[in-house]
Design brief:
This protein has 84 residues and is α+β, with helices and mostly antiparallel strands. It is built from 2 helices and 5 strands. Strand 1 and strand 2 form a beta hairpin.
Length: 84
């Protein structure tokens, strides 16, 4: 979804058996290409520390905020990538 010139990534999931084969990278890249074509200036999402933060960092996303211990034992993390 593009809102206020930003791509908002919701519910991005790759089946475990298909991970590590480049499917997620290709899907994310395609979403970013489409968003840019529609005027988006960047992409953002929220995730938890037990999820794929490293995947997004590998693709240029950086942490912009963190809510500690939500859910208990984990942090909620806001990450974003602004295109140049």
């Amino acid at each position: 979804m593009i809102a206020l010139c930003w791509l908002q990534v919701d519910h991005f999931w790759i089946e475990e058996a298909l991970r590590g084969q480049g499917h997620g990278s290709r899907l994310l890249a395609r979403a970013e290409i489409e968003a840019r074509a529609h005027g988006a200036i960047g992409s953002h999402l929220t995730t938890s520390t037990f999820q794929a933060i490293g995947f997004y960092e590998k693709h240029g996303y950086r942490e912009i905020g963190r809510l500690r211990d939500r859910p208990p034992g984990q942090d909620r993390v806001w990450i974003a990538k602004r295109w140049g």
